[in-house]
Amino acid sequence: MTASTESINPPDTAVGFGFAEIAYLIRRFDTDAARKSAQVLRLEEEVQSDPICVAGGSSLLARGFASVDDDLELEGPAVPTAYALSRAGRWTEISLVDGEKTDTVVHVESDKVSVLMQPRTLGTWFVFAQDPSIDGADAQLSLIKEHRRTHPEGTAFVRVKSISGEDHLLIRPEGLGWAVGKVIDPTRDVEEITGLDTYGLLTRIRETRGETT
């Protein structure tokens, strides 16, 4: 099955999905991107489970996120979510760390729609649409800046993945600016670049995403 490009309207507000529902959405599409999404979301076993995926499809149908014609057809926010998961070209795991806990956001970017996914209790996921008026790097920068606003000493770990590889970036506040680092050699200390302003941080985020500046 291929991902339809019709009726892709990203949800205006956060929409919750259970892990079985996400597993079903991923399993519908036989693409490299879908398989990578299962890996990134740590749902590879669930995607291969017939009972879990049947339960996920049934739940989507009961919630009005799918309808039955000749086959189960996705409806509403399930459409853009499935499209992003099955057609993504980049997955970014953003770990926002403070002194007590770590919050994680997974940014899934495709050609037509990009979504931000946040894990919640009991394997559920909240899915937010990325603002289409800004690009992916700016969306990620906004998350990191908001984290610093609410947690002035908070740090972030950004891991960018594609079908063929991955890169990472460690980010911490430094005075009024930022410092970034990478683990080039696991046996050595983090290699840092300090004294960055916000534009400098954005440049480093873009580089980590494999984008030219």
Largest sheet: 9 strands, antiparallel
> What is the succession of H and E elements?
EHHHHEEHEEEEHEEEEH
* First-residue to last-residue Cα separation: 36 Å
Compute the CA-based radius of gyration: 18 Å
Task: Set out the fold topology.
Blueprint: E1 15-17, H1 19-27, H2 32-40, H3 44-47, H4 50-62, E2 66-68, E3 72-74, H5 78-87, E4 90-97, E5 102-109, E6 114-119, E7 125-129, H6 136-150, E8 155-161, E9 166-174, E10 177-182, E11 191-196, H7 198-208
Antiparallel strand pairs: 1-7, 2-3, 4-5, 4-8, 5-6, 6-7, 8-9, 9-10, 10-11
Describe the structure.
With 213 residues, the protein is an alpha+beta fold. The protein has one domain. It has 7 helices and 11 strands. The chain has helices at residues 19-27, 32-40, 44-47, 50-62, 78-87, 136-150, 198-208; strands spanning 15-17, 66-68, 72-74, 90-97, 102-109, 114-119, 125-129, 155-161, 166-174, 177-182, 191-196. A 9-stranded antiparallel sheet has the order 1-7-6-5-4-8-9-10-11, with helices on both faces. Strands 2-3 form a two-stranded antiparallel ribbon. A hairpin with a 4-residue loop joins strand 5 and strand 6. Helix 1 (19-27) crosses helix 4 (50-62) and helix 6 (136-150) packs across helix 7. The longest helix has 15 residues, at 136-150. The protein is elongated, with a radius of gyration of 18 Å. The N and C termini lie far apart (36 Å). The relative contact order is 0.13.
